Amino acid sequence: MIRIVRRAEGIEMEKRFQSKVSLVTGATSGIGEATAIRLAAEGAKLVCVGRDPQRGQAVVDRIKKSSGEALFIAADVRQRPLVESAVKKSLEAFGRIDVLFNNAGTEGPLKEIVDMTEEEWDEVLDVNLKSMFLFSKYALPHLRKSKGVIVNTSSELGLIGGPKYTAYCASKGGVVLFTRALALECAPWQVRVNCVSPGFTATRMSERELSHYPDKEAARKSAMENIPLGRMATPDEIANAVAFLASDEAKYITGAVLSIDGGTTIK
User: Fold this and answer.
1) Which CATH number fits domain 14-200+234-259: 3.40.50.720, 3.30.70.20, 3.90.180.10, 3.40.50.11890?
2) Is the pTM of this model over 0.90?
3) Active-site residues: which are they?
4) Residue in 133, 130, 129 with CA at minimum distance from that of residue 173
5) Pair type for strands 4-7 and 10-13
6) 131-190: pLDDT as tens digits
7) What angle do CA 49, 99, 45 make, to 5 degrees?
8) Which of 47, 88, 167, 192 has the smallest number of CB atoms closer than 10 Å to its CB?
């Protein structure tokens, strides 16, 4: 939720993250990009982490054009030295970390498990789950100092199963329990840990997912019919929820899993 503050000279957005530093992984597109833009609009200094320097710099340039502060760090989130370096560079640039949004993810192959290779399985688990362990491990000493917040991205398929999505479901289901366990571990330091569980969202990853099907448009139509609200989410709608959970408006919420799926998982 965005609060609108009335001032004598007009109307402006409340700066819930003024003077705070947010580190967002998977910030080069989709939910990560939308959330980076949202947090910056509310006053945060942004560290955008991703693998595509061109797209990452475009996000940073967009934030700076709106008078925000941002830094792009190219990193493979599966690699411990690169994650450790990204956290170090964030501190060198801005001096603190207040919000960690563990968002980097991959959909992986659409395959029956008997046809999936070990390498394909490992990539999905490493990108979707191991990256959260690594960033949380290296950011937590600094989040303890700031009494900060971690928000993780799970998925509706972290709550329900899906054929040919075994690796993805395993990784995103792991995110849910990783979140709940870490929330208990971090509570003594007043560090909150929550996760969002998006449904079908209009992102590049969703388009790649649809391309696995022989008839992409038929697959899209079938997906829409399975969503009670009848449409995909937008990345901005997911960013709304992340910003809420990261803000002081949610300061008594920890260990929560917020479904943003148009009603799919309650059918």
Assistant:
1) 3.40.50.720
2) yes
3) 168
4) 129
5) antiparallel
6) 999 999 999 999 999 999 999 999 999 999 999 999 999 999 999 999 999 999 999 999
7) 65
8) 88
